[in-house]
Amino acid sequence: MTGVQTCALPIYSVGSATSALYSVTVGRDAFGASAGWTRNGNAGPVTNNSVVLTDGNPSEASSVFLNYPQYVGAFVASFTYQDVGGGGADGCAFVLHDSPAGPLALGAAGGSLGCNGINPGLAVEFNIYSSYGAGVAMRPSSQTGPPYTSTAPVNLAGGHPIGVSLSYNGTTLSMTLTDTVSRATFTTNVVVDIVGALGTNTAYVGMTGADGGISSMQVVTNFQFASLTSLSGRASGANTVGLAWLNSAVGLVLQQATLPGSAWTAVTDSVVLDAHGNNQVTIPAPPGSRFYRLATP
Q1: How many whole angstroms separate alpha carbon 70 and alpha carbon 250?
Q2: Which of 72, 98, 250 is nearest to 168 (CA)?
Q3: What whole-number distance in Å separates Cα of residue 179 and Cα of residue 157?
C-alpha cells in the first residue's frame, strides 16, 4: 500500500530551496474499502469507512488490520466507536503489533477483547463490561482485564457514538473521547515508549473487538490513521539541494513529482547518514517546481 500524505516539501528553481522544516503525514489509511485490510474472526465487511466488530451474537472475537506495517514512531489516529443500544460487553481495542501472525493476528473472545495474546503488541483498550467498570487502559503485550480507568463523564457503554482521537509524539500518547450526542469529553495523556515496547518502529495497525456471555453490537466508523515524520530541505551547495529525514523512520521511500497531476516516482540518488543521525539525499536543484514526499512502499 502506498502511503498518501497531506503535505509535500516543494523545491523551486535552480539554485534555491525551501529551508524551513515541514511536517508530512505518511500512510493515511481509512476503512474506505476492503482492499488493504485483513478481517479476522467475526469482523464484518469493511465498507463506507465502517466495520462491525461484534454483531449481537455472544462469544465473538474480531480483528481488522492493515495489510502492511506502518511507521509508529509518531502518529495520529481517530475513529468513532459505538456500543449500539448500550449495556453490552466486552469491548474493543486499538492495537499496534509486530506479531508473527501479521495482519492475521486475533486474540480470544470475552474479556480478552480480541487482542489478548497478540505479542509483541500494545493495545489501547475500551472496556464496556459493567462488572469491570466501563473505561480505558493501555497495556503492553495486549494484556487485558481490570482495572480500567473511568472515562466519566463519557460513558463508553451508554449507546452513544464516541469520537476517539489519539496522538503520539514519540514520548506521550494523548487521547480525547467525545460523546457526539451530549458533547461530554474526556482527555488523558500517558508517557509511553511505543517503539521500545514493540522492539520496532513499524507495526501492524488496526482494531479488535469481542463479546462473551453478554453480547453486543460494536461498530467502528470514520477510522483514520496517519504516520508522522518530518522532511526538511535546504540549499547544500552550488545548485544542489539536501533533503533529510529521521533515520529511525525506516521503511519510508523518498518520492518526487512535478505536480499538479504528475505521478510520484522514487528518488534514486544515494541515501547517506549525516552527522546528526538523519538520512540525507543531495540532489541537483531542479528546474522549475519539484515536490518531494516520504511514503510507504
Answers
A1: 10
A2: 72
A3: 11
Q: What's the rounded Cα separation, in Å, for the pair 289 and 100?
A: 43
Q: For the CA atoms of the chain, what is the radius of gyration?
A: 21
Residue spans of alpha helices (H) in the chain? 194-198
CA 85 vs CA 131, 154, 217, 244: distances in Å = 18, 16, 8, 50
Q: Are strands 37-41 and 9-12 parallel, antiparallel or unpaired?
A: unpaired
Could you tell me what percentage of the chain is helix, strand and coil, using 3-state DSSP and rounding each to the nearest 5?
A: 5, 50, 45
Which cell numbers hold the place of 159?
449507546
Three-class SS state of 1 = coil
Respond yes or no on whether the N-terminal peptide bond of residue 90 is cis (omega within 30° of 0).
yes
The one-digit pLDDT tens for each residue of the chain (297 residues) are 333 333 455 544 333 333 333 334 344 566 766 668 999 999 999 888 899 999 999 999 999 999 988 889 899 999 999 999 999 999 999 999 999 999 999 999 999 999 999 999 999 999 999 999 999 999 987 789 999 999 999 999 999 999 999 999 999 999 999 999 999 999 999 999 999 999 998 899 999 999 999 999 999 999 999 888 777 777 777 778 888 877 766 667 888 888 777 888 888 888 888 777 788 888 887 777 778 887 766
d(CA 219, CA 43): 10
Distance CA(205)–CA(94), nearest Å, equals 8
Report whether 45 contacts 22 (CB < 8 A).
no
